[in-house]
Amino acid sequence: MLSRLFLLALALTVKICAAPNPPQTHFRGESVTTAKGSCGACISALEVGKRSSWVSPNIFIRELIMACQRSGQTTPDVCEGLFKEQGPVLAEVIKHMDVTHFDGYLFCASVLGACDYPAIRPFHLEFAKPKPANATLTRPPSGRNFTVVHLSDWHFDPEYTPGSEAACDKPLCCRSDSRSSSTADPPPTNITRPANPWGDYACDAPLSLHESLLSFLANNLTTLPSFAILTGDIPPHNIWQTLPISATHRTEQIAYNLLRRYFGPPDESLLGVPLYPTIGNHEVAPANLYPPHGMENPKLPGGDASWLYNSLAKSWKPWLGGRAANQVMRNGGSYAVKVADKLRLVSLNTNFCYVNNWWLFKDTNDTVGFTPKIPHRSCLVNYPTSITKQDPNNILAWLIHQLQLAEDAGDRVWIIGHHPPGVPDCFHEYSARFSKIVERYAPHVIAGNFMGHTHKDEFEIFYQDGIQDADHAISVAYIAPSVTPYRWTNPGFRYLCFQLVVWISTIVYRCR
């Protein structure tokens, strides 16, 4: 049993502790097949994990910790902290997964890459009205230019210590306890690569880096922005020590206090313009764990995110106003706000598409016939099985409603979120549904999609009816570079200039 849990713990450790930008996997629509034997091994490991979690969640967690420590993938304290924080929800979810059928194959495909991805099931989205026949950008330019600063992946580390070890043996370095991976001597003896005052590629951002960036915005832009957006991830990558909640909350408060010095009412901030944020996977503690409505379990760490929604509503209220701040509390972190005449902004909590949000693997009411294809299993017939709810928290239905309101009013919409659709760690079914929503409301309503998470300067193109040519391109997702240098990227941000129906320029600023 321990050997199979060793496999599960090893794979989860590598997955959770991995740097951003996971390797791209094929977006496949065919049935699940064996992938060089690893798929069957993954399913077997889940079976063992399920039995163990039913016997005792504490035993399951302890076995994962021991297996992680034996693997040597990271330090013993990271293993212990990681699975003490992530383990209770993982045990609860695996306990209720149908691990030998669709649930298990989806987990092994999307989280661990051990199985081929299950086919996207047929789906139907409810639209109040059909797409107008004249849904094109025929309106003349408004004549008003908007300029916007797009920030993403802030990742402030309050424990960043200049001169500490930057080449350490943990997933995050440059802290007072960071220890060189090439020496047995404890810090501060034999520092192999001292952390710089402004940051390091193996570390998250010190306060000095954030202050420098914001000062640059206030003093060097030729035109001050009309507003700014921040597409998620305020806390650092210390995923093994996000608890107690008060520690993560304190980090976020330091970051938002600094941001409010620069963004806000003209008489209360240096830039005098609002900032519109969205939620990343690191905001919550433990990281990644956002239970959909109806799955909350306050007894578990990671079982209730209401504390975060309440905190963010308070922190964001000076920028959003009371009405949108109340939406943050009551709508799982998502909100909609009018930012200018004929321009709306919709902020989505995209953690309900994130594959490392274990809650999304827990059985719900959705069912589907599924045929597992593993050679050592003899019963290859169709099984009705339940998987992740297709629209957790009804977030996509809410998005459709907001877009319909905008269409009826003749408004344009910016959609902001943390996770871009179509990336490997966003569920394929969510991405497919999101794309269909874009097809319905672009290009006449959706002016653009603005995301982060990958830490890269990237973009995605949406096409009408999946026909990938210039004539069918209808919308773009603009993915901003990260402010943090973690890992191996120069801090940056985007500066956008546009009119309601015309893009003028996009400039990427990099720290070098």
Automatic annotation (TrEMBL):
<dbReference type="InterPro" id="IPR029052">
    <property type="entry name" value="Metallo-depent_PP-like"/>
</dbReference>
<dbReference type="Pfam" id="PF00149">
    <property type="entry name" value="Metallophos"/>
</dbReference>
<dbReference type="GO" id="GO:0004767">
    <property type="term" value="F:sphingomyelin phosphodiesterase activity"/>
</dbReference>
<feature type="binding site">
    <location>
        <position position="233"/>
    </location>
    <ligand>
        <name>Zn(2+) 2</name>
    </ligand>
</feature>
<dbReference type="GO" id="GO:0006685">
    <property type="term" value="P:sphingomyelin catabolic process"/>
</dbReference>
<dbReference type="InterPro" id="IPR011160">
    <property type="entry name" value="Sphingomy_PDE"/>
</dbReference>
<keyword id="KW-1015">Disulfide bond</keyword>
<dbReference type="GO" id="GO:0046872">
    <property type="term" value="F:metal ion binding"/>
</dbReference>
<feature type="binding site">
    <location>
        <position position="453"/>
    </location>
    <ligand>
        <name>Zn(2+) 2</name>
    </ligand>
</feature>
<feature type="binding site">
    <location>
        <position position="455"/>
    </location>
    <ligand>
        <name>Zn(2+) 1</name>
    </ligand>
</feature>
<feature type="binding site">
    <location>
        <position position="281"/>
    </location>
    <ligand>
        <name>Zn(2+) 2</name>
    </ligand>
</feature>
<dbReference type="InterPro" id="IPR041805">
    <property type="entry name" value="ASMase/PPN1_MPP"/>
</dbReference>
<dbReference type="GO" id="GO:0016020">
    <property type="term" value="C:membrane"/>
</dbReference>
<keyword id="KW-0732">Signal</keyword>
<keyword id="KW-0479">Metal-binding</keyword>
<feature type="signal peptide">
    <location>
        <begin position="1"/>
        <end position="18"/>
    </location>
</feature>
<keyword id="KW-0325">Glycoprotein</keyword>
<feature type="binding site">
    <location>
        <position position="153"/>
    </location>
    <ligand>
        <name>Zn(2+) 1</name>
    </ligand>
</feature>
<keyword id="KW-0862">Zinc</keyword>
<feature type="disulfide bond">
    <location>
        <begin position="174"/>
        <end position="203"/>
    </location>
</feature>
<dbReference type="InterPro" id="IPR004843">
    <property type="entry name" value="Calcineurin-like_PHP"/>
</dbReference>
<feature type="domain" description="Calcineurin-like phosphoesterase">
    <location>
        <begin position="147"/>
        <end position="456"/>
    </location>
</feature>
<keyword id="KW-0378">Hydrolase</keyword>
<feature type="disulfide bond">
    <location>
        <begin position="68"/>
        <end position="79"/>
    </location>
</feature>
<feature type="disulfide bond">
    <location>
        <begin position="353"/>
        <end position="426"/>
    </location>
</feature>
<dbReference type="GO" id="GO:0005615">
    <property type="term" value="C:extracellular space"/>
</dbReference>
<protein>
    <submittedName>
        <fullName>Metallo-dependent phosphatase-like protein</fullName>
    </submittedName>
</protein>
<feature type="binding site">
    <location>
        <position position="418"/>
    </location>
    <ligand>
        <name>Zn(2+) 2</name>
    </ligand>
</feature>
<feature type="disulfide bond">
    <location>
        <begin position="168"/>
        <end position="173"/>
    </location>
</feature>
<feature type="binding site">
    <location>
        <position position="155"/>
    </location>
    <ligand>
        <name>Zn(2+) 1</name>
    </ligand>
</feature>
<feature type="binding site">
    <location>
        <position position="233"/>
    </location>
    <ligand>
        <name>Zn(2+) 1</name>
    </ligand>
</feature>
<feature type="disulfide bond">
    <location>
        <begin position="39"/>
        <end position="115"/>
    </location>
</feature>
